[in-house]
């Protein structure tokens, strides 16, 4: 029997390659872990609505950490285990700022993804919807100045800003003035905005406490700054070869990159063969 009971996987830059696909090697390795009694849990900046096909591919049935920890949800029952939303007035301020300054955005809620009309992320999701079966399609609605008032009626877990890398640094500084917000970069050109004190590490601690899981029995895979707190609390933090240096410094192992099925390499060499 393996010592580890949970395997937490970040998505972008970690589980997914640059084509936003879970490789067959990663899929096979994670299913080996499942066969050995290890529960695989996604911990992502995304919301579960954007991960339906990946959840199905890995046959996941338990809990998922979404929106960098702003939402913990049971993907089988739909139960919200934990959530912390952004103040509705501040959501409106953020979106009005984006509309005025031509900054792309996605707004994550429990049942819908709201988007600016033109950004590469939503164009990709619309393309996916054209070929996906209804059960795997992503629910998307567009927001502009005439419809921004609607956001006052919904609970928002995260706003993703989409801009040039240099602009993201300025945006982070700008929105960091709000004490009720957390702003963190997840990938180049992207800024995640959540409620204050939200991070994946805090969500992992909440989940482990609820299910009485010893964090020493948890494997974590990640690559970027929004994975840092998870690396600091998990027993087996493993950094991707493409990870930022801050993540590599906190890791017990550094595996191959996300484009080289680094998760599979680590599972087969650092976990199953130990």
From TrEMBL:
Quote the InterPro entries the UniProt record gives. Answer: Cof (IPR000150), HAD-like_sf (IPR036412), HAD-SF_hydro_IIB (IPR006379), HAD_sf (IPR023214)
A Gene Ontology molecular function term of the record: phosphatase activity
Matching Pfam families: Hydrolase_3
Enzyme Commission number(s): 3.1.3.-
GO cellular component, alphabetical, reads: cytosol
Q: List keywords of the entry alphabetically.
A: Hydrolase
Its domain of life? Bacteria
> What name does the UniProt record give this protein?
Phosphatase YwpJ
Its taxonomic path starts at: Bacteria, Bacillati, Bacillota, Clostridia, Eubacteriales
Q: Which gene encodes it?
A: ywpJ_1
